[in-house]
Hints:
Layout: E1 2-4, E2 7-9, H1 44-47, E3 50-53, H2 57-64, H3 70-74, H4 82-91, H5 99-119, E4 122-123, E5 126-129, E6 137-138, E7 142-145, E8 151-159, H6 168-181, E9 185-194, E10 197-198, E11 204-209, H7 212-234
Amino acid sequence: MFVVTGTTVTTPRPLLVACSFAARGECREAGASAPRVRVENVTPELRARIVADSRDRVAWIRARSRGITATDVATLTSERAIARAADAKLMGSGFSGNAYTDHGRRREPEIAAWVAATHGIQPSSALFHAEVERRHLATPDGIMVDASGRVVLAEIKTTNKPWRSVPRSYLRQVWWQQHVLGAERTLVAWEQHDDFVPVDDEPRCVWVDRDEREIGELIRLASALIDELYHRTTRRPRPEPSPLASAPAQPARPSQPFRALALAD
């Protein structure tokens, strides 16, 4: 269910999806201090999970290469996409941006200011890791902890096409961010443009609620992708899945760089 500027709209349930990963080691060494980033009004627990600052692009890209990000998740729609996602993680996609992404970067601060003024969700440049699996990463465009202690996020997009609903690739990004941050809902705000000139006086927005089934599927596919990367970088056989009954309640930390952990959300 989505709420668009006060109107409730039902949409078809999106497709099941996945995620991606590649690099060696953890996102940040245990015990290392969190970088100074643009993020306000978050709990000490969330602040301790900050990995990098997107304004330091080199460090941010390096940190993102060591985990599964919302951008990676957007490319995966099924297990058949895991091999292609592993290729992109290990060799790079070759895409460095275009006029549309440049426009989006220019407009994001203006849209973020509108989101803050209308919904109280403050802009953020922080890259976070998940509470359990440190290789699960996300950089939400905005974050707020409400009066009830619930984490609320914002995701900002620009588009040259009218949207009847949020595209499914962006929904996958939203659900992944909710998983990483433990958020209950996300405000997706978008601005349509015609030849890079905004069409409307204000952005449009929609609330996307947390979906445990979709998040669970993303985590499952993330584990398969991590195993694929482990196989490619070590040339060892892919591990066979263990029976659920024999799985330990508290899995040990893996020594191999890409071996998937027993994940819990």
